[in-house]
Write a structure and sequence with these properties.
Number of helices: 8
Family: Belongs to the CMC family.
Distance between the termini: 53 Å
Number of strands: 0
Keywords: Disulfide bond, Mitochondrion
Helix content: over 70%
Strand content: under 5%
Shape: elongated
Oligomer: single chain
Structural class: mainly alpha
Main location: mitochondrion
Order of helices and strands: HHHHHHHH
Organism: Biomphalaria glabrata
Subcellular location: Mitochondrion
Length: 127
């Protein structure tokens, strides 16, 4: 009778095995599927930060300098610079190669976290 209960409890997981398995109980490191929150929140956040640092660094820097120089008049005086920055960022977000690159980087980071149990921020601090 105990073996029957054990088999039933093994089959009834709250989380899927991909979310709760793995060497540290953080999920399967080789799982490449994305949850809704990852698709809609985490990957776009990664895309935004990478686009600001890599693809549109000059536009972001120009806008920051304009905002710093104009203070309260920034919305009026920096309108054209802001528009060019927005266009650059929108082009980066629409680029399928860039989206794929960010998605793969996110999945690689998640896989590494699931494999080691160490978050990316902690790894950077250690090195």
């Amino acid at each position: 009778m105990d073996s029957t209960l054990k088999n039933e409890s093994e089959e009834n997981y709250v989380l899927s095995k991909t979310l709760g398995g793995g060497p540290h109980g953080l999920g399967d490191p080789d799982d490449r599927t994305l949850r809704k929150a990852e698709k809609e929140i985490l990957i776009p956040q990664k895309m935004k930060s990478k686009a600001k640092k890599e693809k549109c660094a000059e536009e972001v820097q120009n806008f920051g300098q304009c905002a710093k120089n104009n203070g309260l008049l920034m919305p009026f005086k920096c309108r054209d610079i802001a528009k060019s920055m927005e266009q650059c960022l929108a082009a980066a977000y629409a680029d399928p190669v860039f989206v794929e690159k960010c998605t793969n980087e996110y999945l690689d980071e998640r896989s590494d976290y699931r494999r080691t149990g160490i978050k990316i921020k902690n790894k950077k601090a250690e090195t």
